[in-house]
Amino acid sequence: MLGRKTIFTLRTILFILIIGIGVGGFFLFDSPNEEVLNTSDDIQEQEPIDTSDEKEEETTIESPVYKDPDASIEDRVTDLLSQMSLDEKIGQMVQPEKYNVTPNDVRQFGIGSILSGGGAVPDENTPEGWADMVDEYQLEALDTRLQIPIIYGIDAVHGHNNVKDATIFPHNIGLGAANDVDLMKQIGEVTAKEVRSTGISYTFAPCLCSPQNIRWGRTYEGYSEQPEMVGKLGSAIVEGLQGLPDEQDFLKEEHVAASIKHFVGDGLTYNGIDQGDVSEYSEEELEKHIEPFDEAIQAGARTVMISFSSINGLKTHGDYHLITEVLKGDLEFTGFVISDYNGAQQIVPDDFEESIKQSINAGIDLFMIPTDWQEFITTTKQLVEDEEVSIERIDDAVTRILRVKFENGLFEQPLANRALVAEGVGSDEHRALARDAVRKSQVLLKNDNDILPLAKDNSDIVVVGRKAANIGFQSGGWTMEWQGSPEPDLTEGTTILAGIEEVAGPNSSISFSTDGEEVSGHDVAIIVVGEEPYAEFEGDSEDLRLSDEDISLLETVKESGTPMVVLLLSGRPMIVTEEIDKWDAFVASWLPGSEGAGIADVLFGEHPFTGKLSYTWPKNINQVNNHDKSNPLFPIGYGLE
Q1: pLDDT tens profile 462-512
Q2: 3-state DSSP call for residue 534?
Q3: Rounded to an integer, what distance in angstroms lies between the CA atom of residue 480 and that of residue 191?
Q4: Rounded to 5 degrees, what are φ and ψ at 25?
């Protein structure tokens, strides 16, 4: 009896052989599962092939236009849409999470998209394991009547961060400090290639928020508090992820579809509350935060994710003006609009039907509904039959989804590129780029008596704090898990401690203390402190102060009399006004990702400090709450060299 993986492999080979007959060729068989989908009365059945003896010439079956790669995308979309039943259209509009949908479900319900949220990984968390899983779903999609491929989405927000041993780049706040457009394009290209190496063609990135209240737990997803910088850097990474719109490989081959998010108002909520209400800004002020989205759309962004937030009490997922009139109208966006994770259901929390009705009519096209996707299908069909949602709105949504799928190359190459899968993730070349990004992201905020750079080859250094030897701490949230994890060996990489040992030179003495005890007598102590890993919701902070553990550690080292170089791992500026006077040097290291040696490169002068603050660094929490940037601890743009 053949094993499951053997059967899967044979099916894959069979599909590839069929594709090899001709990309535009018509499949000379009907799906055995055609009866599962309800074809509407206005869709005519295909005429059977005439095989009578009276017909002398061989019957020629023309391939439908939508399967012709030489036809225009708009013609292909129009042709395919004209052949779809209502059930097939609605199936394209929903995106369950992998844990809650089977390959058979994809075939039975004609599902058009699947996602992996943070930590939603295959049993074998390797490129091959991912590709096998995605292809298994894809093969079932290709076994439906019209053989429409799925588009699989994932949160690759600082590298392909769900995949074990992938390259993990600094979070966006660090890339904002680097402020390097060329670097951003390269990071986008590397991330896209690693995503493609797992059989996935769509990432929910980048975030184009410009947080104004850093108590918000997603602050590190924003490049800067300044929308102008966000637009510049966000557009650059979109070009890296997707390629250029006028190039043949746009969204294809080693590129992926990007999703600019979250439209609009992230980081502007009252008191920095996640998924809260934006109530302190005028319409004119909000327009400044729309500009980065406009810039990214001009750069080719093909999907937009809607914000969980409300604006003056109205949930953005139900805001017709913002989604249809502004985004699709004023900004002339022609890709698809996707909801956030169960975001549509928040409009009327206790009324699923009303929430879905309002969000579809507001202009959302693809619904990220991880669990209740079957209810979405039945509810949406009933809404159309009851004329609460027009067929024209359904057709607009499906048109946009199909358009991106054609652009994404899914009809020509629906299965994973096994050559890329074999290359894997986390190559030396990719890690070298991440290390360069870490160097450029470091911001030197204090350097008394020019203690930095440290001397190489003849130094006696003690590295202090458990966070110095921990990949999980230095990578932060959205790394292997949604909220991240403080596991020392969370994924492959170089810790800050290991980087210091590598760069300090063979004649230097490097010791390590987790608690700061007995560290006197060394030339210098490098103390690593910072926030626990977190992501949205869990990361909201009341006071932005260092933890009691970190303060105690710093005080212990101070009592030793050893000069102190403090590295802060954080997703935002922290309130350190009372502590900083005790330190000889202070570096904002942000959340550098897997390549901690980039920090050592600047500490020892292998590369200069070039990073500048992309956020105002407040003196106290009142400045944060009052948006007071007039007399901060450090102004935006500050950074010693």
Answers
A1: 999 999 999 999 999 999 999 999 999 999 999 999 999 999 999 999 999
A2: coil
A3: 15
A4: -70, 155
- Pure H helices in 571-640: 597-603, 621-625
Which one of 143, 266, 277, 340 is the catalytic residue? 340
Cis peptide bond prior to 36, omega within 30° of 0: no
Separation in Å, CA 333 to CA 134, 142, 293, 325, 399:
28, 29, 10, 10, 13
pLDDT at 287 over 60: yes
Please report the beta strands in 39-165, taking only residues with DSSP state E, as ranges in sequence order. Answer: 94-95, 113-116, 151-154
pTM attached to this predicted model: 0.91
Label the pairing between strands 202-203 and 151-154: parallel
- Segment 329-335 long-range contacts (CB within 8 Å, at least 24 positions apart): 331/290, 331/293, 331/294, 331/297, 332/297, 333/297, 333/304, 334/400, 334/403, 335/301, 335/302, 335/303, 335/304, 335/400, 335/403, 335/404
Q: Could you tell me which residues come within 8 angstroms of residue 37 by beta carbon, excluding any fewer than 6 positions away?
A: 85, 87, 88, 91, 110, 144, 145
Q: How many helices (H) and strands (E) does the chain have?
A: 20, 17
| Token pair belonging to 476 | 């932060």
Residue 344's closest CA among 328, 331, 361? 361
What is the pLDDT at residue 62? 79
**Structural contact between residues 303 and 239, judged by C-beta atoms closer than 8 angstroms:** no
Are 222 and 230 in contact by the 8 Å Cβ rule? The answer is yes
Residue 61 pLDDT > 80: no
Tokens describing residue 169: 């780049």
Task: Tell me the C-alpha distance between 335 and 269, whole Å.
Answer: 27
Count other C-beta atoms under 10 Å from residue 315's C-beta.
Answer: 24
- Contact between 606 and 588 under an 8 Å Cβ cutoff? The reply is no
Per the rule left: phi > 0, alpha: psi between -120 and 50, beta: everything else, 312 is left
Answer yes or no: are the C-beta atoms of 218 and 274 closer than 8 Å.
Answer: yes
Q: Which tokens sit at 567? A: 């590295």
Query: 360 with 380: CB under 8 angstroms?
Result: yes
Residue for token digits 């290709």?
A: 142
SS3 content of the chain, % helix, strand, coil (to 5): 40, 10, 50
- For 253, the token pair is 């081959």
Token pair in block for residue 438: 């870490």
Tell me what the pLDDT averaged over the chain comes to. Answer: 92
pLDDT, one tens digit per residue, over 98-120 is 999 999 999 999 999 999 999 99
Q: How far apart are CA 226 and CA 219, in angstroms?
A: 13
Distance CA 135, CA 200 (A): 9
Beta bridge partner(s), residue 203: 154
Nearest 5 degrees, angle CA 149-CA 106-CA 425? Answer: 60
Do residues 229 and 640 make contact, with C-beta atoms less than 8 angstroms apart? no
Distance CA 187, CA 159 (A): 8
Catalytic (active site) residue 340? yes
Give me the catalytic one of 274, 407, 536, 550.
536
Three-class DSSP labels, 323-334: HHHHHHHHCCCC
**Residue 289 confidence (pLDDT):** 98
CB 306 within 8 A of CB 365: no
pLDDT digit string (tens) for 210-225? 999 999 999 999 999 9
C-alpha span between 572 and 218 (Å, rounded)? 9
Q: Of 606, 634, 539, nearest to 275 (Cα)?
A: 539
Cα 307 to Cα 277: distance, rounded to the nearest angstrom: 11
